[in-house]
Model the fold of this input.
Amino acid sequence: MRLFRVLAKMLHLVWHIAVGCWTIRRHFPQMNDAERGQRVQAWSLQVLQVFGITLRVQGTPPPAQGPLLLVANHISWLDIAVIHAAGYCRFVSKSDVKHWPVVGTLATGAGTLYIERESRRDAMRVVHHMTERLRAGDVLAVFPEGTTGDGRAILPFHANLLQAAISANVPVLPLALRFVDIRTGALHFAPSFVGDETLLGSLWRTLGATTLGAEVHFGTPERPAGRDRRTWAQDLQQTVEQLRQL
Done:
């Protein structure tokens, strides 16, 4: 019965992804930014429903219109869908995601900005692009850890992309992610994607989970208040850790 349930959810997920890709290609060109954002949020909520994930949101989600930069801890490939379900934003992601089959179509359709993490020149280009988009009123989001963690602790935050918020003179909204067992409140590691774990293995565990919950805890928007980007990154890391413990 468990195998049948997982396979049924897998087929439902494949269909939902196909519908998402078709919507991006067929309807997104005729939509404005607000309409696309609403569609991405609705689609992401449905993704969580397909997985059977209960979403809990604490604090105040970002407004539909910025300018605002979100910073979050990073646990899983599922994080972006969880954050989008709580409130739409545009993510900054590594450039190779753009070329991934299906995932690249979904990410690009959701308005992702891409960065070559190994290229200092490209990082500067993305900071300039982020600054422009923030000044234009976008809500952007980054994972300052730069990679996924194990869900137990937060890795050090890199400071480079915070320069966009400083240059654009816009606030940063910290948020914390957790995956939990909805019965006990303990951390749930089914969506984990770190080290030698494979995407397929993580996907299969997540589809098979029956008591999985996702928690998004939004903090309070803040400005640098005289801090340089490195000091601010350290402070934001501590803030996200505190939010994660609440």
Summary: The helical segments are 2-26, 33-51, 79-86, 103-109, 120-135, 162-168, 199-208, 229-245.
